Amino acid sequence: MGIMEKMRLDGKVSFVTGGARGIGKAISIAIAEAGSHVVIVDVDIDEAKKTAQEISGLTGVKTIAINTDVTNQADVDNMIAIILNEFGKLDIAFCNAGICMNLPAEEMTLDQFKKVIDINLTGVFLTSQAAAKVMLRQGKGSIINTASMSGHIINVPQPQCSYNASKAGVIQLTKSMAIEFAKRGVRVNSISPGYIGTELTLKSPNLKPLIEKWNDMAPLGRMGRPDELQAIAVYLAGDTSDFTTGSDFIIDGGFSCF
Ligand code: NAD
Question: 3-250 adopts what CATH topology?
């Protein structure tokens, strides 16, 4: 069997949190094109349903959308119950939902700090833990968390200490779980994108003036596109990455090199 055939995900079952739009949507499209059934997990259920329909129309795989707040344990338990009821197994989990707040450290309130940590770090913990429980029972599974280059470098000029701290946390959480599960068939890796054009970066009016600055700083002179994360997502999801665990993949057009 050739490498492209080996990379296919036919018959696998995956969930993608924050899958309704942006990076999560691009990942969902990619793994569906590779043959996996896809569960779109999001707080924006209307958009999640639209994305699920679009993907099943494009690829023919089975898709469902589940209204889930990744910070809520009951929601996450319910999501797993629905997936097991519909598909009977879970092979691949993308814990991707995240938000960013640009606020000076000395002005940020405790609630603002906690909101970012809750979604970006605790949400990844809850959803990857829930996935791991199923996968450890199965003796097989792949978990992929979305971290960020902000887990490695400090973005400038905008202040975003809670985001940077949350993403550094995701990278270490990923490695910790990878080591705990290594001998039991469950792999855990993270993807650390650089600036990618999505609602997170493009839709917020206060970020628009920053985009020119980021592009000036960027070795490739531009932001990335969500589709530029699709190949690494398919690789990490499937069996050709069986020797890959506890790794963080920086896909940032060289941004964090200096
Ligand atoms: P986005 O805002 O376009 O999409 C995020 C999705 O997550 C949305 O569909 C939103 O409804 C969902 N979501 C938010 N809170 C949720 C919650 N509590 N429970 C469930 N779903 C929730 O953002 P994006 O740019 O696609 O970002 C996706 C991930 O990639 C995030 O973790 C983000 O930090 C990370 N990331 C983004 C960039 C970038 O430049 N865009 C760079 C590095 C990392």
Answer: Rossmann fold (3.40.50)
